[in-house]
Description:
Blueprint: E1 25-29, E2 32-35, H1 41-65, H2 69-96, H3 104-113, E3 117-119, E4 131-133, H4 135-154, E5 159-160, E6 166-168, H5 169-175, H6 177-180, E7 182-187, E8 194-196, H7 197-211, H8 215-226, H9 233-243, E9 257-260, E10 263-267, E11 273-277, H10 282-286, H11 289-295, E12 302-311, E13 326-336, E14 356-357, H12 359-362, H13 374-379, H14 386-401, E15 409-413, E16 425-433, E17 436-447, H15 449-458, E18 464-481, H16 483-490, H17 494-502, H18 506-519, E19 521-525, E20 531-535, E21 539-553, E22 556-563, H19 564-574, E23 576-582, E24 585-590, E25 601-603, H20 613-625, E26 630-632, H21 639-645
Parallel strand pairs: 5-12, 14-15, 25-26
Antiparallel strand pairs: 1-2, 3-4, 6-11, 7-8, 7-9, 10-11, 12-13, 13-22, 15-16, 16-17, 17-22, 18-21, 19-20, 23-24
Helix pairs in contact: 1-2, 5-15, 7-8, 7-9, 16-17
Amino acid sequence: xxxxxxxxxxxxxxxxxxxxxxxxxxxxxxxxxxxxxxxxxxxxxxxxxxxxxxxxxxxxxxxxxxxxxxxxxxxxxxxxxxxxxxxxxxxxxxxxxxxxxxxxxxxxxxxxxxxxxxxxxxxxxxxxxxxxxxxxxxxxxxxxxxxxxxxxxxxxxxxxxxxxxxxxxxxxxxxxxxxxxxxxxxxxxxxxxxxxxxxxxxxxxxxxxxxxxxxxxxxxxxxxxxxxxxxxxxxxxxxxxxxxxxxxxxxxxxxxxxxxxxxxxxxxxxxxxxxxxxxxxxxxxxxxxxxxxxxxxxxxxxxxxxxxxxxxxxxxxxxxxxxxxxxxxxxxxxxxxxxxxxxxxxxxxxxxxxxxxxxxxxxxxxxxxxxxxxxxxxxxxxxxxxxxxxxxxxxxxxxxxxxxxxxxxxxxxxxxxxxxxxxxxxxxxxxxxxxxxxxxxxxxxxxxxxxxxxxxxxxxxxxxxxxxxxxxxxxxxxxxxxxxxxxxxxxxxxxxxxxxxxxxxxxxxxxxxxxxxxxxxxxxxxxxxxxxxxxxxxxxxxxxxxxxxxxxxxxxxxxxxxxxxxxxxxxxxxxxxxxxxxxxxxxxxxxxxxxxxxxxxxxxxxxxxxxxxxxxxxxxxxxxxxxxxxxxxxxxxxxxxxxxxxx
Length: 647
């Protein structure tokens, strides 16, 4: 049926690459051709665009210098030939790319006609970034979420919770979202229209690259594009100036400035309790850590999971379900000892080779690593630890089950400058679509940031304990503050200074003491931006030994975060198929894997005779009783047409 798998997920619609044979192929993998000269077709097109740009500049210079007509005509003829060859090569590149990169228009027509997704409040003109799921869209969403629960929650014995969407300000202030959950925004200086700065920059770079650039300039802008969402306000402003970027109306842009993406509201009739619609579901798990640990019998490590809505006041929502203001999320918080991030099931995935895009490759040759095992990636610290690598593998397996084609998937490591404020290593699972590469799953090693800060703000210890078989001596770095000296120097800031020094881990404490011994002072910087000079007389750090039977620690968190809406859109593109034009209409369908197909079975009567109605109804009831979703085709179409046209 149109709901089930008509073609294996790994198959594509075949199209002839060339009938003339002028493009000799050595290999063609999922539309990514390699020519006999060793260049990929994409690289060849890039090289030819640079040639066209260079030749065009040569023609303009000749005209400007007043060269003779014959010389100009020769160069113009060469330029025309280059453009013709480039056009032919670009057409070949387009035909060789996977179908999901060029199916946007027919897919949008299909999902609207079949009522998968529709704009929210459509009769009133709609609201950007808000969408409704129709009956088949709801069914597909339910199947994807059910698979997510089986694949993660059940398989990993996770504790599932469901928290509230409304979140008090104190929670998100503690987590850092109130101060740092921002995107850079620019405004049209004439119309006042708002735009997300990094997206404008990326689009302008892509336009310049498509027009043709010398190789060095192309590579420079490609690196800038990769770093776009990690640029500071000053760096972004300079990039806009360097590239001469204007608004779509041809006007100038304001200086980029941060815009907080959370929806602010008030809780209660008085309006004195500030709240926000949650930007993520994770905080609802963190604040319940103590109860979850108790429910789990105090055993570590363990994971909690949550499916629910998140809200982000996107600056310029677009691209359908890819950038919306209300969206379904699936988040996992795996709590683990900060010094022991091994995973007991890592052995089952250690030999897998995922498409990894580490930060050194992003800033280097731009190529994805395809031949590195996860075991080697962990050993060489390409991936920070086993647990993080394990969840990368589980995400890969989940998405392939959903119908995402493996050639259109990669795991991109965050650059140092774009790391979230709480993370020490992050990898995004990106899926290739008609809109380019789209982040669908984020994997972050959030360290102990969240539980530490909630412990500090709430005065409730969110800690786990490890009991030793027998008491043991543990070496630690003891902090001895000279309170009179600190109080005399810092007065009302004394408590904040002592608290900041107490929070320092052992290695940093030793580093501080080394600085005090060497120079007599240490510059302490607080997260508030304040800076204090600590002298040798104010504090002392020294190694000491204590005997303990129980170790108390703040767990670190490994977090995979899934954008369910984005994944659903990618599934629609990656499973889209077309039979071509039939009866002046393109016949399109979705080749969904059976595990997520909303309709598992179509009942196609061989006759319209009413005497079969009771049997058909009994069959339908039996299928429903056994949990098999089905649909009866009551049209008069032939079996072949009925099967192909089932909704």
